[in-house]
Amino acid sequence: MKKILIPIAIIAVIGFIVYSKAVGVYNTFVQTEETINGQWAEVETQYQRRADLIPNLVNTVKGYADFEQETLTGVIEARAKATSINLQADDLTPENIAKFQGAQDQLSGSLSRLLVAVERYPDLKANQNFLELQAQLEGTENRIAVARRNFNQSVQSYNSNLRTFPNNMFAGWYGFETKGYFEASAGSENAPTVEF
Length: 196
Hints:
rod-shaped
C-alpha cells in the first residue's frame, strides 16, 4: 500500500507544481497584456489630442487670406486619413502598427510643411492664438514620443516574458502572441537639411 502512495504523492506534487506555474504564467501574461492595452490607450489619446488641435490651427491660419490653400488642404486630408485608422489593443501586430504609424507620419509631415510655410507670414507668426496652438502642438508631439516610448517598453517586457522558457510553452497553450513595436519612420536616421 505504501509503495503505491509514494508514486501517487510524487505525481500529485509534480501536478501541483505544473498547475501553479501554468496559472502564474497565465496571470502574468494577462497583467502585462493589460499594461500594454493601457499604454496603447495613452498613445491613442495623445494622437487624438493632436488631431483635435489641428482644426483650430487650420482655422487660425485660414484667417490670413493669402495663405497657401494647398498646404491647408494637405493638413486636413492627412488628419482625416490619420483619424480613420482605428487599431484595437488586441490587434497590435507589427503590420497594423506600421499602417497606423504611416498615417500618423503623413500627418506629421503635413504639419511640418504648414509650420515651415508660416515662416513667410510675420503677422501670423505674431498672432497669439497661433503661438498658443503651436506651443500646444509641440507639447503634444513630446507627449506622443513619451507615450510611444512607454508603450514600446511595455511591449518589450511582455514579449521577453512570452519568449522565455518555459513561458513560451504556456503562451502557445493559451494563445498569447508577441506584440508589435513602434519603430522609427523611414528616413528618420538622416538629419534634415536646413537651407537659408
